[in-house]
């Protein structure tokens, strides 16, 4: 077992056909790789067994969440180096699993793989970490299954989210200033500006009625009621979020203007609303239900009513039917979540009857936001791990850092789509130069 790090480095380079750009430190304290590079720490041989039994993202994720695998040094630099070598290699076949299968066709690699089996120890698959969502059965996106998926992600403790998100308690892309970007404002300033931008795009003013779909901890409805005088309904599937939001609303003295419900968008049968905001919620809807989602929101708006759909988008692929959510995200972060290209989202909103009036791409803003959330988590690491579990905190750190890089590399985007239920008269009630997004004058 001597020099496990050197043996693993050699094996990895043979499989990948390229130098390993990170350093490895193994459980036997051996080290190998370029000095000064971020270090991949393999704390236990169990990490190898996890990767052998589940090659690809799931095996790596299980090793990371369990604490069998860690990174010392700059987390972003390490992820960037590994992504460039494996996940984004030209001709790399799209996944570590594909690289391994191609490599095993070569006799010398099969010999190296046998050595890896020896290094890994007992040929028994380790149990998955308790933070993992087990395989789900039945149709996607039923009311019951969606509620369970939302609970997994959001019902991990309001105090934990307060550490990560900060006082704004907004869990979606902030809207940063120009110039030096993140240095222009605090996270709270940028989240305030995002909420205010949405209110202005929706033309909110006193007397109007707003529905916030996926209201989270109530920040949007609070801002709209306090700053624009609207009456608002916020819906969420998270009991913890609803409890927190109601407390904030009561403390702000706005309980007569805001109602928070634990309710699915498919269960709303209210009188039509003047405006609907959906901020970071549509990613949970799923492609099999998106037409239903768009139809439901269209039906809930008055003629002339506006929808602001704020949604993460992925880049289109050649075979859209082959799209699958990566296993780490599906098992640990957003069970059953699905991302769609922007074009499909716009098309389905139009199919429902909406007239799309504006699309604003803000992907760089999300990279800045995620880096701030990661910094908050790292600053309060010990408390965050106590409030949930060390494994859960590790999930959030990895997924937020990896997503920041995905937005920076243009693998993911996020867009605000403003759409209107245009009346039969054809007058959408929108200004000729809408991008000014000025607040509506009192009495207008």
TrEMBL record:
Upper lineage: Bacteria, Bacillati, Actinomycetota, Actinomycetes, Kitasatosporales
The species this protein was found in: Streptomyces kronopolitis
The protein's name in its UniProt record: Cyclopropane-fatty-acyl-phospholipid synthase
Similarity comment: family membership: Belongs to the CFA/CMAS family.
Taxonomic superkingdom: Bacteria
Tagged with keyword S-adenosyl-L-methionine: yes
Key words of the record: Lipid metabolism, Methyltransferase, S-adenosyl-L-methionine, Transferase
SUPFAM superfamilies associated with the record: S-adenosyl-L-methionine-dependent methyltransferases (SSF53335)
Polyketide synthase-like methyltransferase domain location: 160-405
CDD domains given in the database record: AdoMet_MTases
UniProt-listed PANTHER family: CYCLOPROPANE-FATTY-ACYL-PHOSPHOLIPID SYNTHASE (PTHR43667:SF1)
Entries under InterPro entries matching the protein: CFA/CMAS (IPR050723), CMAS (IPR003333), MeTfrase_dom (IPR020803), SAM-dependent_MTases_sf (IPR029063)
């Amino acid at each position: 077992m001597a020099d496990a790090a050197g043996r693993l480095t050699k094996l990895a380079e043979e499989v990948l056909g390229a130098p390993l750009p990170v350093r490895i430190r193994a459980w036997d304290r051996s080290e190998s790789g370029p000095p000064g590079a971020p270090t991949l720490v393999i704390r236990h041989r169990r990490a190898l067994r996890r990767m052998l039994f589940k090659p690809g993202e799931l095996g790596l994720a299980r090793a990371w969440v369990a604490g069998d695998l860690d990174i010392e040094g700059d987390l972003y630099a390490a992820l960037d180096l590994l992504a460039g070598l494996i996940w984004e290699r030209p001709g790399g076949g799209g996944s570590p699993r594909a690289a391994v299968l191609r490599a095993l066709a070569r006799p010398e690699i099969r010999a190296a793989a046998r050595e890896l089996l020896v290094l890994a120890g007992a040929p028994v698959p380790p149990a998955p970490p308790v933070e993992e969502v087990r395989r789900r059965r039945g149709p996607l996106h039923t009311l019951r299954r969606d509620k369970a998926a939302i609970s997994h992600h959001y019902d991990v403790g309001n105090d934990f989210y307060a550490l990560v998100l900060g006082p704004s308690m907004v869990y979606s892309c902030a809207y940063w200033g120009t110039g030096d970007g993140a240095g222009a404002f605090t996270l709270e300033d940028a989240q305030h500006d995002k909420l205010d931008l949405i209110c202005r795009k929706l033309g909110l003013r006193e007397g109007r009625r707003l529905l916030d779909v996926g209201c989270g901890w109530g920040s949007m409805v609070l801002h709209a009621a306090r700053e624009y005088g609207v009456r608002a309904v916020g819906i969420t599937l998270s009991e913890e979020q609803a409890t927190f939001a109601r407390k904030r609303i009561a403390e702000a003295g706005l309980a007569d203007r805001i109602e928070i419900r634990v309710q699915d968008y498919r269960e709303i049968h209210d009188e039509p609303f003047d405006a609907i905001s959906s901020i970071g919620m549509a990613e949970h809807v799923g492609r099999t239900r998106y037409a239903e989602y768009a139809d439901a929101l269209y039906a809930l708006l008055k003629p002339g009513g506006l929808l602001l759909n704020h949604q993460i988008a992925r880049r289109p692929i050649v075979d859209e039917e082959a799209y699958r959510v990566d296993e780490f995200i599906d098992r640990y972060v957003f069970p059953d979540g699905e991302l769609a290209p922007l074009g499909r989202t716009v098309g389905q909103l139009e199919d429902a009857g909406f007239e799309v009036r504006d699309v604003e791409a803000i992907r760089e803003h999300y990279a800045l936001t995620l880096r701030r959330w990661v910094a908050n988590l790292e600053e309060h690491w010990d408390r965050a791990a106590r409030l949930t579990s060390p494994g859960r905190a590790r999930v959030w750190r990895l997924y937020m850092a990896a997503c920041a890089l995905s937005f920076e590399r243009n693998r993911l985007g996020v867009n605000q789509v403003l759409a209107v239920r245009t009346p039969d008269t054809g007058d959408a009630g929108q200004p000729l130069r809408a991008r000014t997004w000025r607040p509506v004058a009192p009495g207008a």
